Amino acid sequence: MNPHPHPHPLAELVRIESDPAYRALFCAELDAAIQDRFANRAAVVAEVQEAAHRLRALLLHSEPGPST
């Protein structure tokens, strides 16, 4: 016999729906994870925008060199 039977695939969803304290904890953790993801995405976008700005400045202010 398997000592660790697989839980029902929807067991956690049933627990979230039926246990108000667990649902509150789950929702708080989900909200925190979403906020972290949005913050990380915003930081990456800011880095890309800054890199694009530096590249544009470099291209616009560099002196023309010999073409190859």
Strand content: under 5%
Q: Outline, from the CA principal axes?
A: elongated
Question: What value does the Rg take, in angstroms?
Answer: 25 Å
Portion of residues in helices? over 70%
Characterize the largest beta sheet: strand count, sense, and whether it forms a barrel: none
User: What's the SSE pattern?
Assistant: HH
Query: Whole-Å distance between the termini?
Result: 73 Å
Count up the helices: 2
SS class: mainly alpha
Low-confidence stretches: none
Number of strands: 0
Write down the overall mean pLDDT: 90
Which key terms come to mind for this protein?
68 residues, mainly alpha, 74% helix
Structure description:
The chain has 2 helices and no strands. It is an all-alpha fold and 68 residues long. Helix 1 (11-18) crosses helix 2. The longest helix is centred in the middle third of the chain and has 42 residues, at 20-61. The radius of gyration is 25 Å and the shape is elongated.
Could you write a compact summary of the structure shown?
Helices cover 74% and strands 0% of the residues.
Topology summary:
Blueprint: H1 11-18, H2 20-61
